[in-house]
Amino acid sequence: MKNSNRIMWTVPIMIAFSIMNAMISHAQINPITFEEYTMPNGLHVILHKDISAPNVAVLVHYRVGARDEDPQRTGFAHFFEHLMFEATDHYKRASLDKFIQGAGGELNAYTSFDETVYHFEVPSNEIRLPLWIEASRMRTLHVDSIGVETQRGVVKEERKNRYDNSPYGDWFERTAGKLFNGGLYSWTPIGTAQHIDNASIDEFKQFYNNFYQPNNATLVISGDIDMKQVKGFVKEYFGIIPKGIAPKRSNVVMKDMNPGIVRETIDDPKAQLPAVFMGYRGPKIGEKDAYAMSMLMDIVRSGESSRLYQRLVDKDQIAVQASGGAQNLQHSGMMFMLGVVSPGKTADEVIKAIDEEIEKVKNEGVTDEEFTKAKNIAEVRFIEGKKNVLEKARSLAKYHTYFGKASMINTEIKDFMSIKKEDLQRVAKKYFTQDSRTILQYMPKQK
After folding, report:
1. Contacts of 124 (CB under 8 A, 6+ apart)
2. CB 413 within 8 A of CB 379
3. Which of 113, 180, 353, 405 lies 20 to 30 Å (CA to CA) from residue 253?
4. Strand duo 217-223 + 44-49: pairing
5. 417 and 369, same structural domain?
């Protein structure tokens, strides 16, 4: 028999967690070592030597995301994630994939509210190639009509496929807009297609010159490297780039939510079943509340043993899917829960059940078994952040950018382990308030 408030542990699972704990203890005994320094042009460099495999990760983390945009020109940060794969003064357009694949490597990039990140993985004997590419596109990218028009089409097609033409596709945009009430974080990284369509080449150039500067970036090199040699390469490729002016950032401020429950019903011709998306504001990255909320959300929404799945799908059978998530941002955060309504059931039934599960946490807290589960998930993530050179590069960049302490790659697990079971009940009461949330109800549009 399944119980929404209790996890039934099996012997193999307990053995797995014992092995995991041993791995964590070993990881703490052998911390990640690294060197870091700031170049005269402001570029911060972090080097980590790992000889476990003959490969290397090169990552550049730019401190620019959706929150830095003009609200009338959203989507620029994400647009540049694509545009940075165009031509520079040193190589032609459509060359990067050929260079990296020819060297036996991989490349990619991603954008969020707070950051834009580019990364490579190559054999260690090809270390110069990604450094040359990143230095070239940091300041000599061709922001011209050919590249811009090409990427306009790419970004619009991405938006169309992932958002406009998908069931419930705009729920995240709508939730962010209502949670942040026109202030900071109220628009999402994908941006508005019309803003990208209407932007001029000069506007894109201004954005590039403002944010794509060495003093607005962190370079991380992680892998099988010769430290002295790589320092020479970094100086050779990046040392010639002059320091830029301090980036001018958006003056949009955080706004309070409108009082009262914000509820909206959306007719969705692409949806087969009704769905509910419930959003709350949360703590910002690095706060004690953020660690507690992360653990609580793992209990509430993570997997088939979560409270939401157990209640909505297994027990009441009022939803065919129940899940959720959380984002800890630099200046705030958000949590969301969702349920896709079962045939013959209603959105109100789903909302009522979610509310009842939240109230249980607020009134009774979580069980010892659930708290152990949450701690184990946090420990697994700690290990995952060290499993390969690219993950370590991402973590080092993140900790330096948001906390000014790359050393947190070794210590942040202590912040999770300092959380007490009572903290989860406390943050539930603090953040899951019914007068400061959004509810989106998607209904299949009648044909």
Report:
1. 54, 55, 56, 223, 224, 225
2. yes
3. 405
4. parallel
5. yes
* Two structure tokens written together for 81: 């994630």
Q: Do 317 and 227 reside in the same domain of the chain?
A: no
Least Cα distance to 81 among 191, 160, 174 occurs for: 191
Q: Number of structural domains, the chain? A: 2
Beta bridge partners of 118: 60, 109
Query: Which domain, by its residues, includes 300?
Result: 257-444
Name which of 154, 131, 187, 157 is nearest 83 in CA terms: 154
Question: What contacts 24+ positions apart, CB below 8 Å, involve 346-349?
Answer: 346/274, 347/274, 347/275, 347/276, 347/441, 347/443, 349/316, 349/318
Strand bridging mode 319-328 / 333-341: antiparallel
- Residues 242/248/249/252 CA torsion (nearest 10 deg): 180
For residues 32-41, give the mean pLDDT: 98
Residue 17's pLDDT band (cuts 50, 70, 90)? very low
Distance from C-alpha of 323 to C-alpha of 311, rounded to nearest angstrom = 11
- Which one, of 208, 82, 93, lies nearest residue 146 by Cα? 93
d(CA 323, CA 171): 14
Region of residue 188 (phi > 0: left; psi between -120 and 50: alpha; otherwise: beta): beta
For residue 201, being part of any structural domain is answered with: yes
Q: What is the pTM of this model?
A: 0.91
Number of H helices, E strands in the chain: 16, 11
For 309-420, where are the alpha helices, taking DSSP H only? 347-364, 368-384, 389-403, 408-417
- Would you call 242 exposed, middle or buried from its count of C-beta atoms within 10 A (0-12, 13-18, 19+)? exposed
CATH number reported for the structural domain that contains residue 424 in this entry? 3.30.830.10
Q: How confident is the model at residue 447 (pLDDT cuts 50, 70, 90)?
A: low
- State whether the Cα torsion 5-11-14-16 is positive or negative: negative
Do both 283 and 175 map to the same domain? no
How far apart CA 149 and CA 159 sit, in angstroms, is 16
Q: What pLDDT score does 120 carry? A: 98
Same domain, 269 and 321: yes
Residues 229 and 337 in one domain: no
Q: Residue 250 falls within a domain, yes or no?
A: no
pLDDT of residue 15: 35
CB atoms under 10 Å from CB of 417, counted, come to: 13
Of 36, 45, 132, 55, residue with least CA distance to 389: 55
**CA-based max dimension of the chain:** 67
Q: Which two tokens stand for residue 114?
A: 């707070």
Residues 230 and 264 in one domain: no
